Amino acid sequence: MSKSIQLVLFGLLFLATATLYYFHFSQQKVAYVDSAKLINGYQGMVEARKEFQQKSSVWKANIDTLAQEVQSAIQDYERESAGMTAREKELSKELIRTKQKQLSDYQRAMNEKAGQEDAQMTAQVLDQVNAYIQQYGKEHGYRIILAATEYGNIAYAEEGLDITAQVLEGLNKSYAGQ
Q1: Distance CA 48, CA 55 (A)
Q2: Of 132, 104, 154, residue with least CA distance to 45
Q3: 3-state DSSP call for residue 163?
């Protein structure tokens, strides 16, 4: 073989090797997680929801108590109004209106508080999940981890790119202190 052909073959071999090397080592490691499965399966969210539900039960019990007081005041008025003076009737009606306003104000305040606490709880859990995903991505060499929602965002992904189960397992172990 002539030297020029050997040089061309060596150059082509070098180019092919360099190209294969580039494509092999420059591949971006990409995966995704199903955010709904991740959040709903995360023990931190399960416990936060349980705690929130307990608080909600207390708020509801307080609202029920106030509603019973209003109903009781109305029943008392209906039962006793025949024997009341005009002044007593007016005072009883004012008492009922005051109790109704207290009930309404308390319901509004509890709904606002519930919304704020729910938003705060969700933000805290999402912060924990996002921090873990970031750590997981770095430890496992991912360049990007996408989050799929129940409404889409990822129309198609190759089998094996969904790492939800692995992330959820590690997240729950991390939460449990393991």
Answers
A1: 11
A2: 132
A3: coil
Q: Please, are residues 36 and 169 in contact by the beta-carbon 8 Å criterion?
A: no
Phi, psi of 147 (to 5 degrees): -115, 125
Contacts of 167 (CB under 8 A, 6+ apart): 33, 38, 132, 133, 136
Interatomic CA distance for residues 54 and 2, integer angstroms: 86
According to the model, what pLDDT value does residue 96 have? 92
Q: How many CB atoms lie within 10 A of CB 47?
A: 12
Which residue type occupies 35? S
**Shortest CA distance to 30 belongs to which of 139, 130, 161, 135?**
161
Q: How does pLDDT run along the chain (178 residues), one tens digit per residue?
A: 555 565 555 544 455 454 445 445 556 688 889 888 999 999 999 999 999 999 999 999 999 999 999 999 999 989 988 898 999 999 999 999 999 999 999 999 999 999 999 999 999 999 999 999 999 999 998 888 888 887 767 756 777 888 989 999 999 999 998 7
Cα(95)–Cα(159) distance, integer angstroms:
67
The SS3 call for residue 177 is coil
